[in-house]
Amino acid sequence: MMVFAIACSWFGLTIAEVSVADLEKRFAAGRDTVYVVNFWATWCKPCVEELPAFDKLSRAEANNPVVVLLVSVDSPNDRNAKVETFLRKKGFSCETAMLNESNPHIWIDKVDPSWSGAIPATLFVSQGKRLFKEQEFTYRILDSTFNTFREQSK
Known about the structure:
The chain is of the alpha/beta class.
């Protein structure tokens, strides 16, 4: 199974690459888990502004079967220079991965057919149910959306 987690340690930072198919396999394997998957990029100002809300949700739900996963859509060439540097500087605790997909017209529809491709975008998944939001979140709205989805997916 592919490692999806961001590994923060005294020795550095590792960000795995992930495909949409890898994400779908993970969703299927985590039957009791609620996944909150945020698609973002370092060059996207609204994305960067909302990331602390996702980090706060991840910390608040740390003892529950909840995974907050930040999926960067930055160019793979920017992994070291931009993505890892940005994440180290901010100190986020969320799992993070780089999307390893080459054709946006195909993978965007796989995430959600209604997605225009704009970011930030967030996918909530639990027990086969999905909720897709193409919007920027504040913590209050993210927490409310998450809790409503979690209740409805039981």
